[in-house]
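Case 389 in the screening queue. Each case pairs one protein sequence with one candidate compound; here the compound is NDP. For every case the pipeline is the same: read the inputs, emit a complex structure as tokens, and attach any notable structural observations.

Predict complex for case 389.
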Amino acid sequence: MMGDRKKKVVILGSTGSIGINALEVIHRFRDRFEVLGLTAHDNHKLLAQQCREFSPKYAAISHSRIADLKLALTGRKIKVLDANCDLPFLSALPDVDIVIVAMSGRAALEPFLSAASAGKQIAPANKEALVIAGEMITMAARKSGSRIIPVDSEQSAIFQCLEGQNKKELKKIYLTASGGALYNVPAKKFDSLTIDDILKHPRWKMGKKITVDSATMMNKGFEIIEAQRLFDVDVKQIEVVIHPQAIIHSMVSFRDGSVLAQLGVTDMRLPIQYALTYPQRWSSGLDDLDFAALAQLTFAKPDLKKFPCLDLALYVASQGGTLPAVLNAADEEAVQAFLLGQIYFTQIFKVVNKVVLAHKIQKRINLKAIQDADLWARAQAQILIKRIT
Ligand code: NDP
Ligand code: MG
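Case 389 output:
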């Protein structure tokens, strides 16, 4: 038991793929967790439904949907907040024990930082905030005593493999990648694929943005930077390994040559639950791995020519400063334009690459420098996207 009192949880982005899975985990352990806050961007119907089921004290939605949400929750004692500005307040409320950062994109930055400064236990699935401002977040967490237990499956695996180990003896992190929807598709066919083809991920069912990032392998690039920040390692210590079965969620090696791996079914409820119950492990009800049925686990090197976004992210990871924020912002704009049918798949890389190469890196970062770099990169990306369309 984590103590007698129920842990009070806020889920930022409860209507998304991770958020829904997080509520399933909490539902399974309703006697141990209490939902204090739920938030969404636009999906007021699902948020209202979740509020009826879990009766949080707070629900937040973007400004334009507040009236819809209030109407749906008439007669209930739920305080409705504005997700455009109130999330840092919600994440830092004295009552909150755990903040699950399950919202997508840059918007998670301020509430994530706020939770870190307020000493909360944080379970981040969101990687964008860690990419943009990982140093600031981890520093704030160290100062306040906030514990960050990652939900992103690779980072959760690395975290688990490093538990009880001496970090000084760590040699390498092997970040595994399933390869995304295009692993077996020749590069010359990329632009003939429809958005639906790209959105079919072979292993994980996820939100649209991260599924496109998996297809370009930018997602793995973000995870390199995410791992750098979470585990305080040099980019040279991180190696991406293609592992199509996605059973090994990542590995670490030590200076004596030993390698530790974390394996499990491809189900996000597993890392979500671990981040909630850490340092304990509770029964999950998920299937055991059937090794005989799996028969084999395979590995390969990533093809950086076919997936130039990964190569670009490696460069960005080696530079640091404001460049990761630029990479993230340009990618958010380019992926959005792709999902709107404004640019072709391979143009995502072209847009992001141009913006990254045009940026004058500022090495010492603070929130203002990051916000400026973010805005600059979005404007640059939009100029390039408009030129294409
Ligand atoms: P989804 O697109 O499914 O969900 C996103 C959630 O964030 C929704 O609740 C959405 O609300 C909310 N949201 C989106 N934009 C904003 C905004 N501007 N302000 C406030 N809330 C917002 O994404 P996923 O659940 O797939 O991913 C969430 C995060 O987790 C991403 O950062 C992703 O990279 C990361 N991640 C996801 C994994 C997965 O398996 N899905 C695995 C590892 C990491 P609404 O529904 O109203 O639009
Ligand atoms: Mg991942």
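Case 389 observations:
- Residues 152-154, 223 surround magnesium ion (ligand 2) (CB under 6 Å).
- DSSP finds 16 helices and eleven strands in the chain.
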